[in-house]
Write a structure and sequence with these properties.
GO terms for molecular function: nucleotide binding; protein histidine kinase activity. Keywords: Cell inner membrane, Cell membrane, Kinase, Membrane, Nucleotide-binding, Phosphoprotein, Repeat, Transferase, Transmembrane, Transmembrane helix. It catalyses: ATP + protein L-histidine = ADP + protein N-phospho-L-histidine. This protein is of the alpha+beta class and 588 residues long. It has four domains: 49-152, PAS domain (Beta-Lactamase), CATH 3.30.450.20; 181-299, Beta-Lactamase, CATH 3.30.450.20; 316-418, Beta-Lactamase (2-Layer Sandwich), CATH 3.30.450; 424-578, GAF domain (Beta-Lactamase, 2-Layer Sandwich). It is built from 16 helices and 20 strands. The strands form four sheets. A five-stranded antiparallel sheet has the order 2-1-5-4-3, sandwiched between helices. Strand 11 (316-321) and strand 12 (328-331) form a beta hairpin. Helix 8 runs parallel beside helix 12 and helix 12 runs antiparallel to helix 13. The termini are far apart. The relative contact order is 0.05.
Length: 588
């Protein structure tokens, strides 16, 4: 009995030490768990990830939210007190999508739910968030809670939107280029310029993109051999001068072997150390323009050196909205060639319809409407525009009509090219052709002279003129026909002795276009007549001067080069009609 009691007592005495040991272990574990929890809270609250525990009730009230919800301007108390319910801060346009997405995941028994949407911060600013939620269910499978993390992705979304806009602009520019006559190249700085890029519309020359990208065809190999060396020298000269860009005109062969004239606008790309790496080029087919120049050159009977009358213009790209007067969403910077800035159009200060000539605006609008109505994808037209300084220019527009998925026209993507000099050359050739027909139908000298004056005065820059012929019998030169001159002026310049100083000022070996050529007395007469520009062109027959064409302007300060070419061509043309009949004429 005593022995048993003693053993029992010893056993009992041992219990407190065991209990104390167990409590100590549990305490340590609890302490460690609390430390881990505190560390986890610190990590979460110092991160961009906000943790939520929502109840499966209407508008998702929160049972728990991490303290870093302050990143959105809210406090923990705002949510756990249910003063703010989570779905109340979801952007209205996104709420239905979020609710339907979550409901679908619950319905199919999915364990989680992921979605990107917008919420309002407490300051009512819109923020994009990414939610990743785990759906909690009870043993019966009923949803009780949602454990979720919400991450602010606003900056990422902004970057994505910027990238999307850049890609859209690139796509638009690619479409504009590929629907334009301008072919875009990127050439490497190597022999014969292998292509690193070429736009799809190279097909207008019969080639495919792959022809160049595979290097089966090198660009230098399609340039006419007679032009290649000049092109190489021009390129090298501009590189050595440190130029950024330059223009060149030369001939290339199409894939079918035909020759085409092109205008190339080249941009030289360099490394930081100045070494040239590649060339960006815009190649525009100018064959039609060159044919017109050739026709004008031939009209001078090969007696003149060919002069280029077409300006170095490049295509201006536009993106117009399908609204009244076509407001501009985009225009390339080279719109400055028309005297405008990009800002003039994109700010809405100037609408494109505002610069279309009043006499052409209705026909442009009607032609475009007809193209839309008949379902065409593109539109082409020539019309006049007003430049920034008020002058008139002819342009050729080639436009791609852009439609939405419902077929409604939303925009027009277009290229506008200045064709003023081409139009003027065509008009002058037509005047010359009609004059030739008219002169062939008469042997009356005075009628011929009147026809010549009437034809030349169709050119708007010229508003006065006269024709001198030599009278062999009286050995003098006489003003035999005139237009647009005052009677007093005509009396003073009507006739001169052939060997007089005055005669030498209207009877010259070479054309005269400067007022400074004339002696003081004649210059004074011209000033009183308010003449601001002159053209004196001799008429030669079999090496002898038989007369001169004299034209003047009261509006321009110099006769433009293309009009000089026209007048000299007229002089060569009409002398063959005048010479046979001038001796028999009665000038009295």
């Amino acid at each position: 009995m005593d022995s048993d009691t003693s053993e029992s007592r010893e056993e009992l005495n041992s219990y407190p030490s065991v209990a104390d040991s167990a409590d100590g272990e549990r305490g340590k574990a609890l302490h460690a768990a609390l430390e881990r929890e505190e560390a986890l809270k610190t990590i979460i609250n110092n991160s961009q990830v906000v943790v939520f525990l929502w109840k499966n009730e209407e508008k998702r009230p929160a049972e728990f939210v991490s303290e870093n919800v302050v990143n959105f301007g809210y406090t923990v108390e705002d949510f756990v007190s249910e003063r703010v319910l989570y779905e109340e801060i979801i952007y209205p346009d996104d709420l239905k999508k979020v609710e339907e997405g979550l409901e679908k995941r619950i319905r199919i028994g999915a364990p989680d739910f992921n979605m990107e949407y917008r919420i309002f911060s407490k300051a009512r600013k819109i923020r994009w968030v990414s939610e990743r939620t785990f759906i909690q269910r009870d043993p019966e499978g009923e949803v009780t809670h949602f454990q979720g993390v919400v991450l602010d992705i606003t900056e990422r979304k902004k970057s994505e939107e910027k990238l999307e806009k850049v890609l859209e602009m690139q796509k638009m520019l690619t479409t504009v280029i590929n629907n334009s006559p301008a072919v875009v190249f990127l050439w490497r700085n190597e022999k014969y310029w292998p292509a690193a890029f070429v736009s799809d519309n190279v097909v207008q020359f019969g080639y495919t993109v792959d022809d160049f990208m595979s290097q089966e065809i090198l660009y230098g190999k399609i340039i006419h051999p007679y032009d290649l060396r000049r092109v190489e020298e021009e390129l090298e000269r501009n590189i050595q001068k440190g130029e950024v860009s330059f223009n060149s005109e030369y001939r290339i062969f199409t894939k079918a072997g035909d020759l085409r004239w092109v205008n190339e606008r080249t941009f030289i790309q360099r490394e930081k150390d100045g070494d040239v790496t590649c060339f960006q080029g815009i190649v525009l087919d100018i064959t039609s323009r060159k044919n017109i120049e050739e026709a004008l050159r031939k009209s001078l009977e090969m007696q003149k050196v060919l002069k280029t009358i077409i300006s170095k213009s490049s295509a201006v790209a536009f993106l117009w909205k399908n609204m009244e007067n076509w407001p501009v969403e985009f225009v390339s910077e080279n719109v400055t060639q028309f005297g405008y800035t990009v800002e003039d159009f994109t700010s809405g200060r100037i609408l494109y319809g505002d610069i279309v000539h009043r006499e052409d605006i209705n026909s442009v609008s009607e032609s475009l409407s007809r193209s839309i109505r008949e379902g065409f994808d593109s539109f082409e037209m020539e019309y006049r525009i007003l430049t920034g300084d008020g002058s008139v220019r002819w342009v050729e527009e080639r436009t791609y009509i852009q439609r939405d998925t419902q077929g409604n026209v939303t925009h027009f993507q277009g290229i506008v090219v200045d064709v003023t000099e081409r139009k003027e050359a065509q008009e002058m050739l037509e005047i010359q052709r009609e004059l030739g027909i008219a002169l062939s139908s008469t042997w009356n000298l005075q009628t011929m002279l009147n026809l010549i004056l009437d034809a030349c005065l169709q050119v708007k820059e010229i508003d006065a003129g006269g024709i001198y012929l030599k009278d062999e019998l009286l050995d003098q030169i006489n003003l035999v026909a005139h237009r647009g001159l005052s009677s007093e002026f005509v009396k003073k310049i009507y006739a001169y002795r052939a060997d007089s100083p005055e005669a030498k000022q209207v009877w010259t070996e070479k054309p005269i276009y400067k007022l400074s050529f004339f002696a003081e007395e004649m210059a004074d007469l011209l000033r009183k007549e308010k003449i601001t520009a002159v053209a004196v062109i001799p008429m030669k027959h079999r090496g002898e001067i038989i007369g001169s064409l004299n034209f003047a302007s009261h509006t321009v300060d110099r006769i433009p080069q293309n009009i000089r070419n026209f007048l000299e061509s007229i002089a060569l043309q009409v002398v063959n009609y005048i010479a046979p009949v001038r001796i028999e004429a009665d000038f009295i």
